[in-house]
Design goal:
Number of helices: 16
Helix content: 25-40%
Distance between the termini: 45 Å
Largest sheet: 8 strands, mixed
Pfam families: Aldedh (PF00171)
Shape: globular
Keywords: Oxidoreductase
Structural class: alpha/beta
InterPro entries: Ald_DH/histidinol_DH (IPR016161), Ald_DH_C (IPR016163), Ald_DH_N (IPR016162), Aldehyde_DH_dom (IPR015590)
Protein name: Dehydrogenase
Strand content: 15-25%
């Protein structure tokens, strides 16, 4: 779809930032991983020209980019066996050497920071500032673990087998690569499946730099359903790390039931912000604006606001100017060659398919009785003239989505807010707990004691009072309640403990397990 915009006049991709230039820089930086015409897979210490490259397009403008090279199940099993061999050698490497090699890998990635960020812009549509932040969070976080690892592994050892990582596309560096480097630092080999929807080139470059530093990492691409038997159930695997939706997460959890494998499965939940007996509207407005970053395509986004009826008019007075001010468009479009890259709240969603899916869900909610409070238009965005804009979704807000529609109970994973009005504390809590567990929630309430009492009934892992909560960095724990999380929690000591074993055979990790749930202070 090509849609005219009133903001496209004279805009063009900033020189030096095109996909072809980015790929050429990758080929120059790591020719072992980037052929001139395709990406390679990595296992057993070798980059392999294997797998059928998936035809991929960037959500930024619909043009072709390098797709993940999709391997077959037998190759995935070979990769797992090779990663086990790597694991057996690596687990005996002294921690001082592990620290040195991980530091070398992080330093090399820092040297290529802007290239990694540019790949994130093209592959998953992140605005430039947020793409650089994703890279920086990964590298700064791993440096913190390097300093803390001696204390964290005291009395503990590596797992019996490598860690298998299956993650969503939205945070290739600060979630997936960060986790792999910590897993390696703790004494394990790590293998990851490239997210099919985006991030292949970014992860390929990061893994090439990690491999050059002597780290036991592997990267493979393929269909999740076809590779599941190898990457989830293979007996060689010591732990499974998963980040994704509840549908796929449920299938993964079912596949793990009889294996007894260590695991942590981060799944979606409908994160809510309750507003009750509140008056600090300027404070809330600042949080609302920041909440639209990356088009709410993150696990800790807040797409649901639960508002006390008596405050609804004041909420709208604060909310509507914010949503009208949200800036979106082509992340690399400038009017003049020397202009800085645009300061956007978000670019495209991950694909035109996702955009169309959101449009159907919005139409369904409105046709069944939801009230459209705000609907932006593509013309509000800034684009290159004539570009494909089919992956872009203007901000939308819907009041009272009916229970029979998808937006009532599920996370949209896009720039779509839903608002529910309530009259009692009981209704507030019921609406905030609509999805059987969440990762985060917040309460806007002038009376902190009341907010803390209410928060005790909210089924979320982290609850903010007059502020949002996030995944967190360094030693901050992260997990979920209800169906939003299965297995060990992560963050700081919890992440390292999840990928190591202690002397006590009856050790009970913090987490949400079939037989028990144990929550740390949050």
């Amino acid at each position: 779809m090509v849609t005219p915009s009133r903001n496209t006049l004279h805009h063009h991709v900033k020189p030096g930032k095109s996909w072809s230039e980015a790929y050429a820089r990758c080929h120059e930086a790591a020719p072992e991983a980037f052929d001139s015409d395709r990406l390679r897979n990595l296992w057993g210490g070798q980059w392999r020209r294997t797998g059928e490259p998936l035809r991929s397009v960037t959500p930024v403008d619909g043009s072709s980019i390098a797709g993940p090279p999709m391997i077959e199940p037998d190759e995935a099993r070979e990769a797992i066996r090779a990663t086990l061999d790597d694991h057996k050698h690596w687990r005996d490497v002294p921690v001082a050497e592990r620290r040195a090699r991980v530091t070398a890998a992080v330093d090399a990635m820092d040297d290529h920071r802007d290239l990694l960020a540019l790949l994130l812009v093209w592959e998953i549509g992140k605005p430039w500032r947020l793409a650089r932040t994703d890279v920086d969070r990964a590298l700064d976080g791993v440096r913190w673990y390097v300093e803390e690892i001696d204390r964290m592994i005291d009395g503990r050892g590596p797992l019996p087998g490598p860690v298998s990582n299956i993650a969503s596309w939205n945070y290739p560096m600060s979630v997936l690569m960060h986790a792999m480097l910590v897993q390696v630092l703790a004494g394990n080999a790590a293998i990851a499946k490239t997210p099919t929807d985006g991030g292949a080139a970014c992860l390929t470059l990061a893994c090439a730099l990690a491999h050059r530093a002597g780290l036991p990492v592997a990267l493979v691409s393929g269909s999740g359903s076809r590779l599941s038997s190898a990457l989830v159930r293979a007996p060689e695997i010591g732990c499974l790390a998963f980040v994704g939706g509840r549908s796929v997460g449920g299938q993964v959890a079912a596949a793990l039931v009889d294996t007894g494998k260590r695991h942590f499965l981060e799944q979606e939940g409908l994160n809510t912000w309750g507003i009750w007996e509140f008056s600090q509207w300027d404070l809330l407005a600042a949080h609302l604006k920041k909440g639209f970053e990356y088009g709410k395509q993150r696990c800790t986004a807040y797409p649901r606001y639960v508002v006390q009826r008596q405050l609804f008019d004041q909420f709208l007075a604060a909310y509507l100017p914010v949503v009208a001010s949200v800036r979106f468009g082509h992340p690399l479009a400038v009017a003049h060659d020397d202009d800085p890259l645009p300061e956007l709240d978000y670019g495209p969603v991950i694909s035109a398919v996702k955009s169309a899916e959101l449009a159907r869900k919005i139409d369904e909610a409105v046709s069944k009785g939801g009230v459209p409070l705000y609907r932006g238009t593509i013309a509000d965005g800034a684009f290159v003239p004539g570009q494909d804009t089919s992956a872009y979704v203007p901000p939308v807000a819907i009041l009272a989505p009916p229970p029979s529609c998808a937006l009532h109970h599920a996370e949209p994973f896009g720039p779509v807010d839903t608002i529910v009005v309530v009259d009692s504390e009981a209704e507030l809590l019921a609406a905030m707990n609509a999805s059987n567990g969440a990762l985060v929630a917040s309460l806007a309430c002038d009376d902190e004691a009341l907010a803390r009492r209410l928060s005790g009934e909210v089924q979320a892992f982290k609850i903010g009072i007059n502020k949002p909560r996030s995944r967190g960095d360094r030693d901050e724990p992260f997990g979920g309640r209800g169906a939003s999380w299965k297995g060990a929690f992560v963050g700081g000591d919890h992440l390292v403990h999840a990928v190591t074993v202690g002397d006590d055979p009856g050790e009970r990790l913090y987490g949400n397990f079939p037989g028990y749930s144990l929550y740390p202070p949050t």
